[in-house]
Design goal:
- By secondary structure, the protein is mainly α.
- The N and C termini lie far apart (about 45 Å).
- The chain has helices spanning about 1-10, 25-30, 35-60, 70-75, 75-90, 110-125; strands at about 65, 100-105.
């Protein structure tokens, strides 16, 4: 609760609706407009995202990290500090090629498209006669 109050206190009082009505979208728009408090929040979130990604890579040795959904919509505001933090916290860089961290090609729609493809595949597998996904959606 204390962290939430500190975060809201760091928000610019000139934001529409005041600090009590701050959402991810308002912070994103403010950061795009150059608001330093908002940019600082994205840098902090990106740092923790990078630490989390590094932890997963350290455990599972992924070859590629794909960021989708609303996180991908934030673009470089979030991904640049995430990549920096990832580079700092990933282990054994001298012994392996660390994976790239990229945005999903379909951006924030990637989850919906993936769900639709799974449904189509399941329909085809069970004989429901559904048509397949367009070729550009193929993961191969």
């Amino acid at each position: 609760m204390r962290r939430q109050r500190r975060t809201r206190a760091a928000c610019s009082p000139s934001w529409p609706g005041g600090a009590a009505n701050v959402t991810g979208e308002t912070v994103f728009k403010a950061a795009q407009a150059g608001d330093e408090a908002a940019r600082s929040l994205f840098a902090r979130l990106g740092r923790w995202l990078g630490i989390g990604i590094a932890s997963l890579v350290n455990l599972f040795d992924f070859e590629l990290i794909i960021i989708g959904g609303a996180v991908a919509a934030a673009g470089d505001l979030l991904l640049v500090p995430a990549r920096d933090s990832f580079e700092r916290f990933v282990f054994a860089r001298a012994h392996r090629q660390p994976p790239s961290i990229v945005s999903a090609r379909l951006g924030s729609e990637a989850g919906w498209v993936g769900s639709a493809i799974l449904a189509l595949d399941e329909g085809n597998r069970t004989g429901l006669g559904l048509t397949g996904a367009p070729a550009q959606w193929s993961a191969t």
